[in-house]
Amino acid sequence: STIPGPIWLWTQPLDSYSRMHKKRPYIVQVVSATIIYLFGDLVAQSITPTIATENQNSSSSAQPFLEAYDLARTARALAIGSFAAIPGYHWFLFLARNFNYSSKWGSIVLKVLINQIVFTPIFNSYFFGMQSGLSGATPAEIVERIKHTVPRSWFNSWKLWPVVTAFSFAFVRVELRGLFAGVIAIGWQAYLSVLNQRAAKMEE
After folding, report:
1. Dist CA 60 CA 49 (whole Å)
2. Is this entry keyworded Protease (predicted)?
3. Which helix H or strand E contains 62, and what residues bound it?
4. pLDDT digits over 41-55, tens only?
5. Measured distance between the N- and C-terminal CA atoms of the chain, rounded to whole angstroms
6. Exposed, middle or buried: residue 91 (CB in 10 Å: 0-12, 13-18, 19+)?
7. Surface-to-core class of residue 127, CB atoms within 10 Å of its CB (0-12 exposed, 13-18 middle, 19+ buried)
8. Treating both helix axes as pointing N-terminal to C-terminal, what angle do 104-114 and 161-171 enclose, rounded to 10 degrees?
9. How many CB atoms lie within 10 A of CB 69?
């Protein structure tokens, strides 16, 4: 009774998403990840422009977003997101199906810890390594980018993702967990993209 409007306005989209996910989980995961990374990159580019574009327009104190927009940067983000979608989906299925003990909250805490200790540093290394590699960096430069970004991003992830992951395992249906985390991930992907640009600027 506290939700404004007819209840079907809120439940119908989620039910439709659940049905599509059950029929074509991989397609839904890839499309969802592509949308998440697209919005995350657009937010990040509005905050921190690409170095080359920033240098070209350094004489202007305020440049329009479209003038500073870097399509190649967006393409890299979409490639990284689409490649990671299915492995990430299987990882969270693995967590959902395992580490289930008599204590519900004890199980959730363990899942959160495993995710933070195992998955997060691996994913962040993949994200920043791919960002650097797809930009044409050498293997040594890729390693440097990972060194400059992964420890900080992993530390900051503890401020957000344990709560999001715990809430997801506790209250969100399996097929909707990716969608729920994806909404939060728009802001997180923007943060990672900004951190990557700052590292690239420092390295340059």
Report:
1. 13
2. no
3. none
4. 898 888 877 765 555
5. 56
6. middle
7. buried
8. 140
9. 17
